[in-house]
Each structure stands twice: as structure tokens, then as C-alpha cells.
Design brief:
alpha/beta; FAD/NAD(P)-binding domain; Flavocytochrome C3, Chain A, domain 1; 4 domains; four-stranded mixed sheet; 25 strands; 30% helix; globular; binds flavin-adenine dinucleotide
């Protein structure tokens, strides 16, 4: 086991408190919540193995929806004491985690301090961060990195110490990384550990549809909520206790009811609400939409981060050029053929130039693109030594070379694209949501860490720290979690096969296009109003379609995409100022007092 040293030179502990004895594997009978131990499906691109289908059935104590950094971190902690079922809607490595390039922020250098990392985070967050959360996450960063190193993540090292790179908004070098494909290495290590763990069952190709709540009990709770069918006609849900999820098995087409004492949403962000996004296809805000429908508050959804530098290529639409290229000296320039062509423009916008926070850089690029009618601007690092470039950015170099761009000799055409969802399901310091038995962690949650803008490489960190915190909270409070009651099976008796799949494609594209045009980097009241109007019209069409036709993953995602778009627009309209990532030309000023936008379901 490799040991890391912190800035203070102290040795970091290996794994913290590890629980030994598994909890009893009891659960209600008569429900379709039995899972095969370690059942994983072999999918291309996934490191998951496919061990025994013949292994005994086990009832999960905890269900985790999502197999990215947040979900699997929680699973590994919980699995020391209880049985965990992890659902993922495609391959186990299909979330954003595997796509992260730059790295993970942590104070590990002797010249760096927690206070500096906290200040950088608060500065980026535009005064909206919750300081308690920021301190909690940053102070737990070194041990999170240590846990990953223990799992075998091969972080780059230099003369025996971790190599630290620097990114925009950070006052020190503090980003640990695995070349320029950190997320891939982390995701593979987590999947390998989860696959090997006897208390974790991994179920890829399961699309969670909705949370199972009190309303789905066979015996309704006296004086509380009316009963709902476990089916598509159940309408808006609601309930005070969450007992699991309904999930569509995309292999069989059946919706299963999975119940457990506690449920963790780790479903990632909602980037695909936008036409251009660096996020993978499945980033459709499912967890946020499910939690909202079940009765959770959702906060700060207007703060969508746009990564300034996504490759401009009509074939490859979501290839990110990591921030570290600017960190290592890359310059943003106007392309030739326009006034000022070939010159840097960031010095005109911010004294931190290319290392200004992402929102500043993205807005500057957006401004120059709109001002000059450009398709893209240039990111140029060709003035640096070719060996250095190839050594630091091997994957980006190879990928670009395959597309005919040699970044050691020429600039890279780039545009901004949606990149990170700062808002989400409102949680407390242990990842608890408004509903008993329901936790949310990672990009689908709003913990207060990022405020109005995420500081680069703080998001994976949040997944590790909150994944761990939620799991430990569940274990500490285990005795207060009741076994799930008998629950209704999913009722698909009143739906038919879809007669027009084109409806889904059409609506999907429409949402992403108007969100890009009306609710993008620069907003106005009129544009937001137009978006709200479009959402209202689409809502009845999508709801109607959802109620009448058999579920597919596309339909589930469309419904969630629309729900998330509505939450983003509602939040953006509620904020009558510009702050962090939210810029409204009709309210260009920042109000003296920073307030969260908290949406409360009916
Ligand atoms: C291109 C790119 C580069 C990035 N680079 C960095 C970086 O360098 N540093 C950094 O800190 N952050 C980076 N980020 C952000 C970071 O990767 C994410 O915030 C983080 O990985 C989110 O992890 P997560 O566990 O919350 O969700 P994800 O990793 O997105 O995982 C979501 C999981 O939920 C599952 N899921 C979703 N909906 C359902 C459903 N309905 N039913 C069942 N399962 C479902 C998915 O299948 C998946 O398993 C980057 C993001 C992108 C897109």
C-alpha cells in the first residue's frame, strides 16, 4: 500500500473506521427485491466481470442508484456491514466519472493550506457556498485520496510525491491526477473493488423510474398520503418515507420493485438538458427529477457550469480539452481572419487571464464568438515543448491527432459546452434529503460545496467525501431504519407499445435546443419566459405519452429531462441578479445578500 503525505508531512491513515460484521440480511417477503449476488452483465467498455448467476439470492439492505464515484464510494463503505444493491442504467462505467480528465483537488503540498483551498472554493462560488460544507469536504480530501491510492488508483508521482497540477481558480498546484484520464482510472478501480466485494450486487442496465414511497404501500399509512399505484398512471408522487425504487430492466422490458431500508441517489448531473454538453448521454437529471416528484426540495438549479473548452468538431461533439491545458500555459486566441486574429483575448476580460474561473472564461469566449460571428476560438499550447505536451496530455494528444490536429504544432478549435450541474437535491452534511430513508450524493445533490460556481476538480472530491459520509450515517443510524413494508408491484396493465417513437426524439431535441438558446451562458427575462412557455406545452404532451405507452429508457429520460429543464428555468427566473454561473442581462448586478434558490414541491 502506498502512503501519501499531506502538506503538514503527516502520514494519512489508511481506511478510517472499518466495520466488520455484516448486518442481518432480512427483508420483507413477497416483494420482487431479490437480487443475485454480484450479478453484473458483461457490457462493452465495462471492466465489470460476470461472476456467478447461480449464486444465492440476497435481499439488499441499501439500494444505491448510480455506479459512479459517489455511488461506489458509498457502496464500498456500506458493504463492510450490510448488503448493497447498486443499479446503473447502462454500463457500470457509463456516468461522468469515467470521463473526468483533469483530476481531484486536495491539499497535499507543503506550501498549500486548507484555508487557501477553502478560500479558492468560496471565491469561485460567488458567496453562495455553505462554509461548513466547504470545510468538511476540503479537510477530508487527503484521506479520500489515500483511500483511492489504497484501491490501486495509479496517481502520477514525481520523485516519490504525488504530482500536482494546477487548474483555473486554484491558488496552488493541488490537483492529483492519472495522466489526463483520472476519472477512467478511478472508475475502474472502484468497479474492480465493488465487483470483488461479496456484499455488493451490481446491476447494470437497470433504469430507475421512480422512488417507492409510503404511497406505494399495500396498506396505506393512516391519515398521510393517498395510495398510488406502482405504475405510470400514479401521477405526481409524494410520501414521507422512501422504501426503494421501481426500475426498468432494459434486457427484459419489465419494471421491478426494489425495496430496502435506505436508498441513495447517486445518479449524476443533468448536462444533457443542453444541446452541447461534455457529459455522457445518460446525464439526464434522473435522480433530481425522481427526488422532486417524491417530495424533496431541489436547490440552485440555475447554476449550470459551462466548460470553456470543448473541442469544436462537427463529428465529435463532446470532447473536453481539460482545464490543465490552460493551467500548463495554453493561451486562448482569436482565430485568424478577424480583427485581432491570432491574439490572446483573456487579458482584456480578467487579470487572471486564462486561469480565471470557468464562468469568466466561458462568458469571455461566448462574448467573442457572438461579437465576431465565430464558430470557435483557438486554444494554443504549441509554444511549449512537444515532449512536455505529449507527456502531460497523452490521451488528448492522441485523440486530436486522430482528428487531424497536432496540438504540439497548431491551435485547437474550442467552444464552451455545458459541463457540470451545481444544483440538485438539497442535502445536509450526511447526504440526507427531506425524505426519511433517502440520501443523495455526488453531482445529483446540492450540498453547499459549490455555491454559484464549482471550482475545478472539487466535484469528484465531493463524491468521495459525501459518498463516505452518507454511508457512515446510514450505518450509525441503522437501528432507526425499519424493514420495508409490503409494496405494490409496478402496474403496466394499462399501457400499450408506443406507436410513434419519433415523439421522443423530437421532444428530446427540442428541449436541448431551447435550453441551449434560451437558458445558456447568458440569459434574459424574455428568453427564460420563452423557455418556460415551451416547457408548459411539452409537459402535457410528454405526460400524456408517459401515461399511455410502455416504458423505454428513452421515455424515462425524456420525462426526467423535461422535469429538470423546468427546475432549471424556475430557478433561473427566481434569481433576480447575476451571480456566479447565472448571468441575466436584465439583472446584471449582484445583490448584497447571497441566497440559495430553493424550490419546494407542492
Ligand atoms: C468530460 C468531463 C470531465 C470532467 N472532469 C472532471 C475533473 O477533472 N475533476 C472533477 O472533479 N470532476 C470532473 N468532472 C465532473 C465529475 O466527473 C462528475 O461530477 C462526477 O464524476 C459525478 O459523479 P457521480 O458519481 O455523481 O455521477 P456519475 O459518475 O455521472 O454516475 C452516475 C451514475 O448514475 C447512474 N444513473 C443515472 N440515472 C440512472 C437511473 N435512472 N437509473 C439507474 N442508474 C442511473 C448512471 O448509470 C451512473 O452509473 C468532469 C465531468 C465531465 C463530463
Amino acid at each position: 500500500m502506498r502512503r501519501l503525505t499531506s502538506g503538514a508531512g503527516r502520514e494519512l491513515s489508511a481506511k478510517g473506521d472499518i466495520f466488520k460484521s455484516p448486518l442481518s440480511k432480512t427483508g420483507p417477503r413477497g416483494q420482487n427485491n431479490l437480487v443475485k449476488k454480484n450479478k453484473t452483465a458483461a457490457r462493452p467498455g465495462s471492466a465489470a466481470q460476470q461472476p456467478a448467476d447461480q449464486q444465492p439470492d440476497v435481499i439488499p439492505d441499501v439500494i444505491i442508484v448510480g455506479s459512479g464515484a459517489a455511488g461506489l464510494t458509498a457502496a464500498l463503505v456500506l458493504a463492510e456491514r450490510c448488503h448493497v444493491l447498486v443499479l446503473a442504467k447502462g454500463a457500470l462505467d457509463g456516468g461522468s466519472t469515467a470521463w473526468a480528465q483533469g483530476g481531484i483537488a486536495a491539499v497535499l503540498d507543503s506550501g498549500d493550506t486548507f484555508e487557501d483551498h477553502i478560500n479558492d472554493t468560496m471565491m469561485a462560488g460567488g458567496g453562495l457556498n455553505r462554509r461548513e460544507t466547504v470545510e468538511f469536504v476540503i479537510e477530508h480530501a487527503p484521506e479520500a485520496i489515500q483511500r483511492l491510492a489504497d484501491l490501486g488508483v495509479p496517481f502520477n508521482a514525481d520523485s516519490g510525491a504525488l504530482h500536482l497540477t494546477r487548474e483555473g481558480g486554484h491558488s496552488h498546484r493541488r490537483i492529483v491526477h492519472v495522466d489526463d484520464a483520472t476519472g477512467w482510472a478511478v472508475q475502474q478501480a472502484l468497479i474492480a473493488a465493488a465487483t470483488a466485494h461479496p456484499n455488493i450486487t451490481l446491476r447494470p442496465d437497470m433504469v430507475a423510474v421512480d422512488l417507492v414511497t409510503d404511497r406505494h404501500r399495500i396498506e396505506p399509512v393512516e391519515g398521510k398520503h393517498g395510495a398510488a399505484t406502482g405504475g405510470q398512471q400514479g401521477g405526481q408522487q409524494g410520501g414521507q418515507q422512501v422504501w426503494g425504487v421501481y426500475a426498468l430492466d432494459t434486457q427484459t422490458g419489465h419494471v421491478e420493485c426494489f425495496s430496502a431500508r435506505a436508498t441513495i441517489l447517486a445518479t449524476g448531473g443533468a448536462g444533457r438538458t443542453y444541446l452541447f454538453s461534455t457529459a455522457p448521454r445518460g446525464a439526464t437529471g434522473d435522480g433530481i427529477a425522481m427526488a422532486w416528484r417524491a417530495g424533496c426540495r431541489v436547490s440552485n438549479m440555475e447554476f449550470m457550469q459551462f466548460h470553456p473548452t470543448c473541442l469544436y468538431n462537427l463529428e465529435v461533439k463532446n470532447f473536453l480539452i481539460t482545464e490543465a491545458v490552460r493551467g500548463e500555459g495554453g493561451h486562448l486566441k482569436l482565430p485568424p481572419g478577424v480583427p485581432g486574429g491570432g491574439e490572446r483575448f483573456m487579458p482584456r476580460f480578467d487579470r487572471r487571464e486564462e486561469l480565471a474561473p470557468r464562468d469568466v472564461v466561458a462568458r469571455a469566449i461566448d462574448h467573442e464568438i457572438k461579437r465576431l460571428g465565430l464558430d470557435y476560438v483557438h486554444l494554443d499550447i504549441s509554444h511549449r515543448d512537444p515532449e512536455f505536451i505529449r507527456g502531460h496530455f497523452p490521451n488528448i494528444y492522441e485523440r486530436l491527432l486522430g482528428l487531424g490536429i497536432d496540438m504540439t504544432k497548431e491551435p485547437i478549435p474550442v467552444v464552451p459546452a455545458q459541463h457540470y450541474t451545481c444544483g440538485g437535491v438539497l442535502i445536509d452534511m450526511a447526504g440526507r434529503t427531506d425524505l426519511a430513508g433517502l440520501y443523495a450524493v455526488g453531482e445529483c445533490s446540492e450540498s453547499g460545496l459549490h455555491g454559484a460556481n464549482r471550482l475545478a476538480s472539487n466535484s469528484l472530491l465531493e463524491c468521495f467525501v459525501f459518498g463516505d459520509a452518507a454511508a457512515n450515517d446510514i450505518l450509525e443510524r441503522w437501528d432507526s431504519f425499519a424493514a420495508p413494508p409490503p409494496l405494490r408491484e409496478w402496474d403496466a396493465s394499462r399501457v400499450a407499445d408506443s406507436d410513434e417513437e419519433v415523439v421522443i426524439k423530437q421532444n428530446w431535441t427540442e428541449i436541448r435546443r431551447f435550453m441551449w438558446n434560451y437558458v445558456g451562458i447568458v440569459r434574459t427575462n424574455k428568453r427564460l419566459e420563452r423557455a418556460a412557455h415551451r416547457i408548459k406545452l411539452l409537459k402535457s404532451e410528454v405526460n400524456d405519452y408517459y401515461s399511455n405507452f410502455r416504458l423505454t429508457s428513452d421515455l424515462i429520460e425524456l420525462r426526467n429531462l423535461l422535469q429538470t429543464a423546468e427546475l432549471i428555468v424556475k430557478s433561473a427566473r427566481a434569481r433576480r441578479e447575476s451571480r456566479g454561473l447565472h448571468y441575466n442581462e436584465d439583472y446584471p448586478q449582484t445583490q448584497p445578500a447571497a441566497r440559495d434558490t430553493i424550490l419546494v414541491p407542492n
